[in-house]
């Protein structure tokens, strides 16, 4: 497929970058030629918006996967400053890393395999999720070994068919947990589940899961469990399914300024601000002749004499290879599309006859440029993947840090 140069049409852009974001060009970032600034003021603002929508429920800030690529420890600290009382980490190692960095607050981890470091979690005051009898047995073994009573959250599979005890398995798990609680090995502080389609609030599975969760709560409480928190809502549930709020909501993607789904609304509709802004400096600017092919395979051909700029970011840095002839980049005053294939370390943009120089800044996504959701639309994916996949070669520079 061959394309000619032009300005792409993307979705809504956001307000221009702040002075603090421009200050993100640290010596490391300048040497690299790229930087991901992480606006912690925006994160706190987004968290406040979600807390408002939660209407009194406590808020868990989900910081799994290096805080969706934004930086685990700075984002966790900012979330606690912004009013979150809980932090959520998928892996036990992530929860342990939070504690070892001195991060406070309540911390829950929920994705473990046999042999997971449950003892390390207990000695670091981390709550653990239990979805099956084998996990309960291992948590109890860790409690005996450490002398620390485990705080556990029992997870019910209400219809997502990932982790969690199915309705058939739930009574046995609840009964065993109650026995271990009576023995003093565990304290069941939470009952929870996860919605499959909260980003489409009218999807029939949402109402079904709400009902199944209510049944699971009833069975657990009838067995004598008295949990501190019941939690079901993710970002989409927090913003679009009030019945899912219960005692605690788990806010992930919305905290980072991206919409959890089109049916919930755009980020702007929801009052969310992008937290990550990915920028780079042009490594090369040159004129090429009409008919010149650009990048591997010449899937882009210049229709006339034009100027091209080289952006030093590629699929090794998390730029999707699917962004060929599609990914939007703000360069030389206009939004362009990636010209040709995405390479391992670089992409090309066609600047037409606009002026540019090596070293000029471009905005790949974030404040002042296209959004991560625009990139997702161009690549057939979701905004979550765009921000989370940005690789370690790109320096993260937090801005809006509390002194």
In words, what does this structure look like?
With 403 residues, the chain is α/β, with parallel strands linked by helices. The chain is built from 14 helices and 19 strands. It folds into 2 domains: 145 residues, Lyase, Ornithine Decarboxylase, Chain A, domain 1 (Beta Barrel); 217 residues, Alanine racemase (TIM Barrel, Alpha-Beta Barrel). Strands 8-7-6-5-4-3-2-9 form an 8-stranded parallel sheet. The chain has a 4-stranded mixed sheet with strand order 18-10-1-19. It has a 3-stranded antiparallel sheet with strand order 11-14-17, with no helix packed on it. The termini are far apart.
Give me some keywords for this one.
single chain; 403 residues; TIM Barrel; 14 helices; 19 strands; disordered N terminus
